[in-house]
Amino acid sequence: MQDLVNAVNKHRDLILEAERYIWKHPETGYREVKTSKYMEDAFEKLGYTLTKAKDIPGFYTVVDTGRPGPEILILGELDSLICPTHKECDPKTGYVHACGHHAQCAALLGIAAALKEPGILEKFCGKIRLCAVPAEELIEIGYRTELRKQGTIKYFGGKGEFLYRGYFDGVDMAFMVHTSSNFAVRAGSVGCIAKKISYKGVASHAGGSPWNGRNALYAATQGLSAANAIRETFKEADIIRFHPIITHGGEAVNAIPELVTVESYVRGENFDAIKKANKKINQALTGAALSLDSNVDILDIPGYAPLKNDLNLMDVFCESVKEILPGEECTKSFAIGSGSTDMGDLCSIMPVVHPYAGGAKGTSHGNDYHIEDPERACVDSAKVQLMMLKILLGDNAKRAKQIIADFKPPFASKEEYLAYVDEINAEGDRIIYNEDGTATVNL
At what angle do helices 2-9 and 12-24 cross, to 10 degrees? Predict the structure, then answer.
């Protein structure tokens, strides 16, 4: 254990410098060009050969111990959020790491550096895949829709995209340590469908001839009101969440709005619940458009699968915290969080765990979020993750092999999983107005 601690401590300055640099250069998903370049340069300086995503940010490298055993994937997320009221956000873009992904990257770099120290790899067998992955925050749906139309990406989340591209082929299990106020792990979190909702009306002079128009903004507000009215039909156990924002509300104050766009997710504890809730919400959104003689184009896109943390890997995390940080409490909960993460995509085919390191303060995704203690969030996190590797890949990988043997994947392969989520894709006008005065609705 002390060897692992010393290996990380030797690179403490490298870790903390990375945390500060990435914090000061935030970029949102699939735009993380500077962040990815910084990480690439640091890894290559350490002597790693990288497989780069090329047309999008991100990369991975595989460390082979030379001894047979499973392959474990360790991730760090590159992207930031948008929070224009945060005092340290980028003043031009509003970008800020208000979820602590920059600390993940710093810890990942610390792990990479420590693995290069003499004698460290001798403690493990199998392979270790280190990956800097883009686009965990499911935001800017319009931008990602354009990337998909261009053929640059197929999936809105970086882990799903990397999975599809084959960058995780051969991996047996995965973990990634996020940041929070303390060291903790819970059973999982909800999944989601991403939505772009475009209400279509007819423009006209808002003062001179409003009767010649059909107001898309009114249709949108009625649609959101209708969706709010069905919230009590959702079961608490399904943890359904629908939280829309209007991203475009019209062109000019003196014109009846002809196009209004809304973005949202439908979140839920399991795929069946998500799909049922999504159909109800589409019915409410479409009914509002129908009532105002307008139309609505609803784009439904696979978001993230529900995250189910492997119970055995949850134990490994808490054991590692206890070993590395004596006296530090590791809180283990069997609750399901109502946020979403694309780590859920990976747990659909392999055992994963997505725990938290301490060191952060403020409201996650809020304008007061920051890393108060980078030592805990980055340096201690790197040590704990190395200890997880020691538990899993030490002793001829006995612990890792048992976890893999006990795991029952929801899907037999990545191909089966991706085919399932691809069925979620739907787009187009939901109403056809017929010549006989009737209308046909497609939910």
Answer: 50
Pairing of strands 71-77, 127-133: parallel
Please check whether residues 329 and 346 belong to one and the same domain.
yes
Residue 429 is classified by DSSP as B
How far apart are alpha carbons 438 and 10 in whole angstroms? 73
Residue ranges making up the domain that contains 282: 192-304+421-441
Same domain, 136 and 197: no
Q: Are residues 102 and 216 in the same domain?
A: no
**Cα–Cα distance measured from residue 414 to residue 171, given in angstroms and rounded to the nearest whole number:** 11
C-alpha 411/C-alpha 305 separation (Å) is 12
Question: Are residues 219 and 289 in contact, defined by beta-carbon separation less than 8 angstroms?
Answer: yes
Q: Do residues 90 and 175 both lie within one domain? A: yes
Query: Which residues make beta-bridge pairs with 336?
Result: 188
Distance CA(160)–CA(261), nearest Å, equals 25
Buried-state track 202-218, b at ≥16 Cβ within 10 A, e below 16: ebbebeeeeeebbbbbb
CATH number of the domain bearing residue 240: 3.30.70.360
pLDDT per residue rounded down to tens, the chain (443 residues): 899 999 999 999 999 999 999 999 999 999 999 999 999 999 999 999 999 998 999 999 999 999 999 999 999 999 999 999 999 999 999 999 999 999 999 999 999 999 999 999 999 999 999 999 999 999 999 999 999 999 999 999 999 999 999 999 999 999 999 999 999 999 999 999 999 999 999 999 999 999 999 999 999 999 999 999 999 999 999 999 999 999 999 999 999 999 999 999 999 999 999 999 999 999 999 999 999 999 999 999 999 999 999 999 999 999 999 999 998 999 999 999 999 999 999 999 999 999 999 999 999 999 999 999 999 999 999 999 999 999 999 999 999 999 999 999 999 999 999 999 999 999 999 999 999 999 999 98
- Please indicate, yes or no, whether residues 120 and 99 belong to a single structural domain of this protein: yes
Q: Could you please report the per-residue DSSP string of 85-127?
A: TSTTS-TTT-EE-TT-HHHHHHHHHHHHHHHTSTTTGGG--SE
Claim to verify: residue 15 and residue 141 sit in the same structural domain: yes
Q: What pTM does this model have?
A: 0.93
**Structurally, how many domains does the chain consist of?**
2
- Report the distance separating Cα 178 and Cα 419, nearest Å: 29
Question: Is residue 416 in a domain?
Answer: no
Which CATH number characterizes residue 65's domain? Answer: 3.40.630.10
